Amino acid sequence: MRLSKQAGVAGAVIAAVLLLLWLVSLLFPGPSPSERAKQLRDTLTQRVMQQVQDHALARADGYTYAVDVGQLLIFAARQGDRELYQAMHAIALEHLLIHDADDPYTHGFVAWRYKPGQPLDASGTTEALRLAQGLWIGSDRFEKPKDRNLAHDILQGYARHQTVDQGFWMIRNYFNLQTRAFANNSYLIDYDPDLLADIAQATNDANLEQIAQQSAALMKHAVTPAGLLHAVIQPELTTLMPQVPPIFSPNNIEHLGNVAAVAQRSVQSTPAHAQRVLDFAMAHVTDLKTYYNAQTSEAIFDTPATINTLAPLLQLAVKLQDHRAQEVLLALFLQRAQRLPQASHDTWLHDASEALLAIQAVEQHP
Description:
Blueprint: H1 3-27, H2 33-53, E1 64-65, H3 66-79, H4 82-96, E2 113-114, H5 125-141, H6 145-159, E3 162-165, E4 168-171, E5 175-176, E6 181-182, E7 186-187, H7 193-203, H8 206-221, E8 232-233, H9 237-240, E9 247-248, E10 253-255, H10 256-263, H11 271-283, E11 289-293, E12 299-304, H12 307-319, H13 323-337, H14 348-364
Antiparallel strand pairs: 1-2, 3-4, 5-6, 7-8, 8-9, 10-11, 11-12
């Protein structure tokens, strides 16, 4: 399906859904979406803070994950929530940020998780981006210039994960702190060209600027025929199978939430491709699923879209200033998130951080 036709279908679908939402609001009046979003934000924040006070941020395996800490750090910085920011800041500096004076090569690396009594096993690149973003925003919000320097140090550590393999540039997924070896693959979620470009410009860092440009180029290379984005980068496969592209979707399957998470971090760098992802979602919005075939756009597994899909899609709509899509996605998001405050699954903290960032995006950019 050509993009223009897909966009037309998406527009018709959005109009129909908006009409349905309007009719439902007339028949069943209640709190407005903005009021429900605020209530959800307050409830989630209270529970997160309770878990912070109870030292209960670890998942069932006993590990506290840097992506959870980083996303809560971003939320707290944007929200001006000093208490939550300081709590996440303390965890990051004490347990996740690597600054061993005897190991300058790993200075600025971020551990992807930690568990008391266990050595750190590997760095995390997605995690580094989230912590750097939170510290960068917090440095301005709370007037903490040291956090600005920490954010820059983390991104310089992130930059040391780059390599060229089989002529293909990439950011390697992790550095094994025990074997001292890098991974030979990468995931598209490990890139954030918009953040890198912004910080490169603010710090006049030519190396970060180049990585931002290469990241944007990688985004363009990752576009699938259906308008989604490939997830896996593994150039070494071409040594065995030259016909296999270095970037692909395993079994042609993509998680729409992961695709949206990447797209909403490249709106400035590759706006047309970000818009295609939103158009894809809105063309399927009446029965939105979690997994799709990256080639044909067919739904896979029949799994309804979850918070981890709807939250990044909502942020994407906000960044693209698509108010109609934002209204529809917010309604779906609130419907799926209504049980989240009482949920108890293992990745609850991550889901809560995703939900909080989505609500925040709507509230701060209505």
